[in-house]
Amino acid sequence: MEYVIEMLGIRKEFGNFVANNNITLQLKKGEIHALLGENGAGKSTLMNVLFGLYQPEAGEIRVNGKEVKIANPNVANDLGIGMVHQHFMLVENFTVTENIILGSEPTKFGTVNIKQAAKKVQELSTRYNLDVDPYAKIEDISVGMQQRVEILKTLYRGAEMLIFDEPTASLTPQEIEELIQIMRLLIKEGKSIIIITHKLKEIMEVSDRVTIIRKGEGIGTVVTADTNPNELAELMVGRQVEFKTEKTDATPGEDVLLVEGLTVADYRGIDKVVNLNLNVRRGEIVGIAGIDGNGQSELIEAITGLRKVKSGSIKLNGKDITGLKPRQITESGVGHIPEDRHKHGLVLDFPIGHNIALQTYYKEPISKGFLMDYSKVNEKARQVIEEFDVRTGHGEMTPARALSGGNQQKAIIGREVDRDPELLIAALPTRGLDVGAIEFIHSRLIEQRDKGKAVLLISFELDEVMNVSDRIAVIYDGQIVDTVYPKLTNEQELGLLMAGEKRQTTTLNKGGND
Amino acid sequence: MSNRLINILVPVVSIIVGLLVGAVVMLVSGYDPILGYTALWNGIFGDSYSIGNTIRQITPYILAGLAVAFAFRTGLFNIGVEGQLLMGWLAAAWVGYAVELPRIIHLPLAIIAAAVAGGLWAFLVGFLKARLNVHEVISSIMLNYTALYITNAIIKSLSDGGFKTETVLASATLRAQWLRDLTDNSSLHLGIIIALLMVIVMWFLLEKTTRGYELKAVGFNQNAAEYAGMSVKKNIILAMTISGMFAGLAGAMEALGTFQNASIKAGFTGVGFDGIAVALLGANTPLGVVFGATLFGSLKYGALNMPNAAGIPEEMVSIIIALIIFFVACGYVIRLALSKFGSKKEGK
Question: Which sequence ranges are marked TM in the entry (chain B) (predicted)?
């Protein structure tokens, strides 16, 4: 079998840190090859070596059997290697075509020949069934569409081998499905693909072979058909991983959160939450299942006081908290793990220790009067870091920015749980995290439930909702369209509810105990 | 090469490179660089008189630098220090001559008046930003012009059509005879003590208080600050006001120390704008501002000696000073060169 790309015994060091050690990856023509590893295992480093952004200390790279030296991304481009980055490299207020030709503009009498370029883009788009409008502006199109523009960009430059870096991280389930179709079509047209991911389900579905790396070491390559998710997870993490989070049945008590007739508008004044009813009881985890953009963000922002409530009421332990300020709501016993940890959850330029004080800095013992007691800040931070297994380089003084996503999230969860809130709101708590971190976070949420707290979990991942929740409220178009129990439903039914299809038969006694 | 060593070497090498390029400019234009730099050196450190005046020159730069640095640290760009300084200058001068009080009350009162005037002028900027989303750069630039012409008009009417206010009373002056005696009758005044005190105030406020924690959080990430229940608007207005108070104090230094009055100006003093460079040179830290201001103030004052002692025209002097500051501001390039040089040596 012919290999289009061979990376043999690659070693890459950063100072004393070995990011890649003796890693071998061989890509066959016409295959989808998954590169699997935890966050920080060295996947991106390896791909950056292939793309010419880093030079390896040892090892060799062969393209179509010939040894090559990839000094920079232009060399990679010329060799037919294209990269679809996780964070898109697009100019927001340029059109699709302008973005695609950026850096290699076709010219006619010294002016850019947009028409000719747009025609070529259109042709490629049709051929690979990408359905992209060459004249649309990037800022006007969806995230999934932007990703296709990135794919087009590599195809336009004649890429034969495509590298996808965490391509599904920001996509909805529908968009993921479409992406998989696109990948299959690319293979059919003779391209070869490397997909970097830590999502086992996608690997099982889409890839032909998997190369696993762990802590910078190459573990090996397996044929997908001969393996299973459990084995892959074990290879990746280096120990047995529990997928089904172990938990006892819930014994819910009285309502902690009671939302009645809630209507909330977004920043444009359009109602995103409409007359919504929801309750979360002591000792249960309620999962909100739904496709991104059905009012989840607005619902959480309204409960936590970050967004104005148009009408309706929110009660916490029987006390009306509608329209209170964020701090008053926090003080009445709400913990909030925000959906965007960089935007809301952390001050990235602060040390992680100062971030752990973010919700308590104005209270004793963290401060006395108008004076901060930074020794107490650090003491508290060390305790949370220890208890929640936050891995930092330099303890509590490490800048929050320098932590990996999983550790940032653990620090946020530690901060919120440490305050011992009555209601814990966890919005997309495991987004972008690897299985080890996900396992840890899920067990912490269940631990809160078992302590008799109420937990509201918002997630786009069906697996997560099914695994962790005791009760699932499906949100569609700003309303809870149905409430189901994980034991009595399945992914197909949930999927239909999330897509706005009404359930055929209702077998549940709503609101009762299971 | 260790990081620490590089951190110390960068400014030193920057200044040397700046001086060398300045020397080349002098050579090419037909002047003697050794003579020129000797004149600069003597202008700064030559005798106690020069040292006194150099310190006097540094004083308002420290305060203007603190004003800009404080705003930067809280996520704001205060380009209106110039206007706030002018308001502070006039307020201090007016209180300085218009009221009669014992020195122990009068001097502090005049200084506080300057801080309040500068603070109020900046409050307008903060208020416009917090309430109406007006960008602080636009409003503070406009308020610079407003301040210039308002103060000119007020000075004109206070002095019955003259061009300067009455001299401040002895009870409100920052001048002290012992300082003059110590420095051969230079115009060194007590203001430097106030400036250094404010350096400590800024450090204390940002690093030790809950308010400082809030101000920094708002400066770095407004969304996270809001999530944590802080009032972003209140903190923006407060940050701008405090910044303006530092600027107002810089005005008080001129009114009560250097000039003893407020006079009509044809244009801006430039101290407020130089404050931006001072803050950036000092990496927006209080101690860094002291170093930045020292460099700026020394070069500015010492350069006055170059036309007399070395016959180098003033314009040429300005170019040389600008070059030195340019290279210090380019510290990044120097840092890069140093670390490359260092790693090559280690490689061998």
Answer: 7-31, 51-72, 79-99, 105-128, 188-206, 236-259, 271-296, 316-338
CA count, 13 A, side-chain hemisphere, B256: 36
Predicted local distance difference test score (pLDDT) of residue B282: 86
| Location of structure tokens 């208890």 | A387
Query: Which of B210, B216, B339 to mutate to probe the A interface, most A CBs <10 Å?
Result: B210
- 3-state SS, residue A12: strand
Q: How many residues does chain B have?
A: 348
Q: Which CATH entry fits the domain spanning A255-498: 3.40.50.300, 3.90.1170.20, 3.30.565.10, 3.10.20.740? A: 3.40.50.300
Residue of A nearest to B204 (CA): A371
Which pLDDT belongs to residue A242? 67
Quickly count: other Cβ atoms within 10 Å of residue A64's Cβ.
15
Q: Do the Cβ atoms of B209 and A338 come within 8 Å?
A: no
User: How is residue A428 annotated by DSSP?
Assistant: S
The answer to whether the beta carbons of residues A246 and A234 sit under 8 Å apart is no
Best mutation target among A340, A358, A394, A412 (most B Cβ atoms within 10 Å) is: A358
Question: What is the interface pTM, i.e. ipTM, of the complex?
Answer: 0.84
Q: Which two tokens stand for residue A342?
A: 């960089």
The interaxial angle of helices B48-73 and B210-220, nearest 10 deg, is 70
3-state class (DSSP) for residue A472: strand
> Residue A23, SS3?
strand
- Strands A192-197, A161-165: parallel, antiparallel or unpaired by DSSP? parallel
In a 13 Å sphere around the CA of A232, the CA atoms on its Cβ side amount to 30
CB–CB contact B229 A345 (8 Å)? no
Q: Domain boundaries in chain A?
A: 3-237, 255-498
Strands A192-197 and A209-214, by their bridges, are unpaired
Across the interface, whether the CB atoms of A359 and B221 are under 8 A apart is answered no
List chain A residues with CB under 8 Å of B216: 347, 350
**Distance separating alpha carbons of residues A142 and A177, to the nearest angstrom:** 15
What CATH number matches the domain at B59-310, 1.10.510, 2.60.120, 1.10.3470, 1.10.1200?
A: 1.10.3470
Burial classification of residue A190, based on how many CB atoms lie within 10 Å of its CB (0-12 exposed, 13-18 middle, 19 or more buried) = exposed
CATH of domain A3-237: 3.40.50.300
DSSP letter (8 states) at residue A397: G
Answer yes or no: are the C-beta atoms of A262 and A275 closer than 8 Å: yes
Q: How far apart are CA A293 and CA A472, in angstroms?
A: 18
Of B212, B225, B229, the CB nearest to A325: B229
Quick check: A437 and A253 in contact, CB under 8 A?
Answer: no
Low-confidence spans in chain B with pLDDT less than 70: 1-3, 342-348
Q: In this structure, what token pair is assigned to residue B251?
A: 């005005």
As a whole number of angstroms, the distance between CA A275 and CA A475 comes to 12
> What is the 3-state composition of chain A as percent helix, strand, coil, each rounded to the nearest 5?
35, 25, 40
Tell me if residue A311 falls in helix, strand or coil.
strand
Q: What is the rounded average pLDDT of the residues A304-326?
A: 95
3-state secondary structure of A339: coil
Which residues, 6 or more positions from A250, have their beta carbon under 8 angstroms from its beta carbon? A283, A284, A285, A449, A470, A471, A514
Nearest to A182 by CA among A201, A162, A200, A166: A162
Residue in A378, A405, A426, A38 with CA at minimum distance from that of residue A238 = A38
Residue ranges in A388-486 assigned as alpha helix (H) = 405-418, 435-450, 462-468
Residues 6+ apart with CB under 8 A from B266: none
- CATH 1.10.3470 in chain B, residue ranges: 59-310
* Helix spans in A9-80 (H): 43-50, 73-78
- Chain A residue numbers with beta carbons less than 8 Å from the beta carbon of B211 are 370
Question: Is residue A368 very low, low, confident or very high in pLDDT (cuts 50, 70, 90)?
Answer: very high
Provide the pLDDT for residue A503.
55
pLDDT computed for residue B86 by the predictor: 97
